[in-house]
């Protein structure tokens, strides 16, 4: 007789993501302690993410991307089953930071020969995401708000954006994305490597 597991089965994307994070660390010959020091994240948090015992937050992935010199789209693209030039809506990789309610859809697949990617983001009212550094310094971003309102802080300047507004920036330091409400915010982010 089979017993029901005590915990929910891990998300398949989290399992592939954890395995890829462990591979990246091993490729550099780093221990968990080495990576923890470089990323400013606890060893236990890294270990749990690598084993898919927890779904990593956007802030954690951002720190790991910075250490590994990748954008989040590149990292998430590396865990797709197989890259393709066309990705149908139903097949686009969707990742969720459950703690913040942030949902990220990789609209265009990352490709080694291309510098640009499209990402759709959704933030619920009241959500507040802070990144302490860009995944790649000098990353070019074009953020177009499709629905709702979004407050974005980049290079120490806060920008209040409404439906239809577009913010263009190069990211060198901390950024913050906040949805003041009353409704959710949905936006497209064009990411271009320097």
Automatic annotation (TrEMBL):
Q: Where is the HTH cro/C1-type domain?
A: 21-75
Does this entry carry the keyword Signal? no
Q: Report if keyword DNA-binding is assigned.
A: yes
Give this protein's Gene Ontology molecular function annotations: DNA binding
For this protein, the record's Pfam families field holds: HTH_31
Domain of life according to the entry: Bacteria
Keywords, sorted A to Z: DNA-binding
Which PROSITE patterns did the record assign? HTH_CROC1 (PS50943)
Q: Which InterPro entries match?
A: Cro/C1-type_HTH, Lambda_DNA-bd_dom_sf, RmlC-like_jellyroll, RmlC_Cupin_sf, TransReg_Diox_bact_type
Q: What is this protein called?
A: DNA-binding protein
